[in-house]
Design brief:
The structure holds two protein chains of two kinds. Chain A is mostly helical. Chain A has 18 helices and two strands. The model of chain A is unreliable at 1-25 and 335-345 (pLDDT under 50). Chain B has helices at residues 2-30, 37-54, 59-82, 89-111, 136-158, 160-170, 172-177, 182-204, 215-229, 234-254, 260-274; strands at residues 125-128, 132-135. In chain B, helix 1 runs parallel beside helix 5, helix 1 packs across helix 6 (160-170) and helix 5 runs antiparallel to helix 8 (182-204). Chain B is globular and about 60 Å long.
């Protein structure tokens, strides 16, 4: 009897509180589900080189780079509420570290990628610590400043970075082939997504969201706010560094375009359009925008303008992005494994 | 060399102060940073180029028209984009950042990447202390910039509207309780902030021609000035603007031109580390 009352109560509540109950009934992610979906998707993607030509493969490689960048930026902005404008700059740190080591000191590019990742992570750690005491506005300004400093240094230190001419770097594989790079980027993307999954769908992830929702309340419940924010900064910067380093070795030419604000803008609009604070959002955003960009490229260089307008409309009218729009439909498709009622009852 | 660099620093400093006043006003009242500030500055430059250079209007009239149009655009931006994000700083950051890139690309499409420049107000140059000649246009810019800054101070310190601005930036709820229509105030002050960017733009564009991305360094410097001076402090903007203008130009003259803008960011990060409230900031900024 009591159980039934409780069920009724839950049912009534969920119909009353449309949005928040949807939150409770969300498709529950378990480790097994995540890994099987990830590997199935990767398996399907890895069939692509069979059917795609060189150009389309290039588009896929660039998309994967953006998946890595947007997903890791999402960890910062979407899950901890730190809108950093230095994410592209961290990719630049990774790319230039690995590139300069390979060109000047003959370091193996693979080792270079790892060192680039580590260095970007260290810079991220420093940045996270520096920004600790700052609220949203200060953090954004500081990261913007950092990004500009880096761009100016790279442009000016011509002897080391070759400035705007770009630094020619060796490839990751002996024989240049798009197929090989496609698999490398796919691997990088999977590593990124697994690291992010581990962080987001764990106690740490819960803490992240608690910090974002209400920093003081989270702190009062024993969440180490400082550690969470710094951790998110470090991990996401390291992931950006890895993405940048891999991408640099794919392009074979590293230019200040990688750590530029327009790159940062692309990452931001992909995340916003896909859905900030959702795991799938940046992935959907990165693929759809990159592919879309290639289509409009035929009509001229309008893609940045179009993205900007779309991103403005989405951020204004549907702050949860495409994933937020799709959520009600997905709900019907995937019956939740475990409802809130079952969990609490 | 030193006097020349110092003079340049003074002129640029006054313009930075002007641009920063706009940012500071908006931050003080709405706690919103408009990342498209620099693009509105550029827009005013383009407007005055169109009106004075292409249509051949009188340059004063062209400037007034340009500032008025940017003011209206600012009001529109506040109404369409900023108002729905009240209470969520993150989205206003993201929206104005996107807006800045949209505007940059729109300018690129409309005006092309070439520098455009409205006609000079005055020609010739004046000799200083028998040691160097200084362009009259730059002197006129310094005078015009100082005049606008004085006008802003007059409005904020002496008028009824200024009292409302000060009250709201001190305590929003209290101001509301005393009958201030803060929604309308937000709209007006956002427009005013944009108009100040525009004023800086029309004054500086005859000296530094406008290109689609020329607003970025100006806006970034204005942000640094605001942080340096303390968010929401008007005197902080003036002093901070002058300091940055001087540091930038003396640094460019004696250390390195390429690193001109790096000095500003080094200052920014040092200030944030040592005195996050800025030189003149209130606690709890």
């Amino acid at each position: 009897m009591q159980e039934r009352v409780q069920k009724d109560h839950v049912a009534r509540r969920s119909s009353e509180l449309g949005a928040s109950s949807r939150e409770n009934l969300r498709f529950v992610v378990t480790d097994r589900r995540f890994y099987s979906i990830l590997f199935a998707a990767a398996g399907l993607l890895s069939l692509l080189p069979l059917g795609l030509g060189v150009y389309h493969l290039h588009v896929m490689i660039v998309s994967l780079f953006y998946v890595m960048m947007a997903s890791s930026w999402n960890l910062l902005a979407g899950y901890t509420g730190q809108v950093s404008f230095a994410h592209a700059a961290f990719a630049g740190i990774g790319a230039y570290t690995s590139g300069i080591l390979a060109v000047k000191f003959g370091v193996n590019p693979w080792l270079g990628v790892m060192l680039g990742t580590v260095l970007a992570g260290l810079f991220g750690l420093g940045m996270g610590v520096l920004c600790l005491r700052m609220g949203g506005i200060y953090l954004s300004l500081t990261t913007l400043g950092f990004s500009e400093i880096l761009r100016i240094i790279i442009t000016n230190e011509y002897e080391i970075t070759r400035g705007t001419m770009g630094l020619q770097v060796p490839g990751l594989v002996a024989e240049y082939s798009k197929v090989a790079y496609f698999y490398i980027m796919l691997g990088g993307t999977m590593v990124t997504l697994m690291v992010l999954y581990k962080l987001i769908y764990s106690n740490i992830g819960l803490n992240f969201r608690a910090v974002q929702n209400d920093e003081r309340a989270a702190a009062s419940l024993g969440v180490d706010v400082v550690r969470m924010r710094v951790l998110a900064f470090t991990v996401s910067s390291a992931l950006a560094g890895m993405a940048g380093a891999l991408f640099g070795h794919y392009l074979l030419l590293i230019t200040p375009e990688i750590p530029s604000l327009s790159q940062q803008f692309l990452i931001l609009s992909m995340t916003v359009i896909g859905g900030m604070g959702s795991f799938l959002g940046p992935i959907v955003g990165a693929f759809s925008l990159e592919i879309f960009a290639e289509y409009i490229r035929a009509y001229g260089e309008y893609h940045v303008l179009v993205f900007g307008l779309v991103a403005l409309v989405v951020a204004r009218l549907a702050p949860k992005g495409l994933m937020g729009i799709a959520e009600p439909y997905l709900q019907d498709r995937f019956k939740p494994a475990r409802t809130a009622a079952a969990a609490s009852g | 060399m030193f006097a020349m660099a110092a003079m340049n620093g003074l002129v640029i400093g006054a313009i930075y102060a002007l641009a920063a006043l706009g940012v500071s006003l908006v931050v003080g009242i709405m706690n919103v940073i408009n990342f498209a500030h620099g693009e509105l500055y550029i827009l005013a430059g383009y407007f005055s180029y169109l009106f004075a250079g292409v249509l051949g209007l009188n340059f004063v009239l062209a400037m007034i028209l340009a500032v008025a149009l940017v003011f209206l655009l600012g009001v529109l931006i506040e109404y369409l984009l900023i108002r729905p994000t009240y209470g969520n700083d993150m989205y206003s950051l993201i929206l104005t950042f996107i807006l800045s890139i949209v505007l940059q690309n729109a300018y690129l499409l409309i005006f092309g990447p070439y520098p455009n420049k409205p006609p000079n107000w005055v020609g010739g140059s004046t000799e200083f202390f028998g040691s160097f000649f200084y362009g009259n246009q730059r002197l006129a810019a310094l005078i015009a910039g100082s005049a606008v800054i004085a006008l802003v101070f007059l409005i904020v310190k002496k008028t009824w509207f200024g009292r409302i601005i000060r009250a709201t930036s001190q305590d929003r709820e209290m101001a509301e309780l005393n009958g201030v229509n803060t929604t309308r105030l937000n709209m007006l002050s956002f427009g005013l902030g944009c108009a100040l960017a525009a004023a800086a733009g029309v004054i500086l564009s005859p000296i530094f021609p406008v290109t689609p991305t020329a607003g970025v360094p100006v806006a970034l410097t204005a942000f640094v000035v605001v942080v340096l001076g303390g968010m929401g402090s008007l005197w902080g903007c003036v002093i901070g603007g002058l300091i940055l203008g001087l540091v930038e130009n003396l640094g460019a003259a004696f250390i390195s031109t390429g690193y001109k803008h790096v000095f500003n960011f080094v200052i920014l990060i040092l200030v944030l580390l040592t005195r996050p409230a800025g030189l003149f900031g209130r606690r709890e900024a």
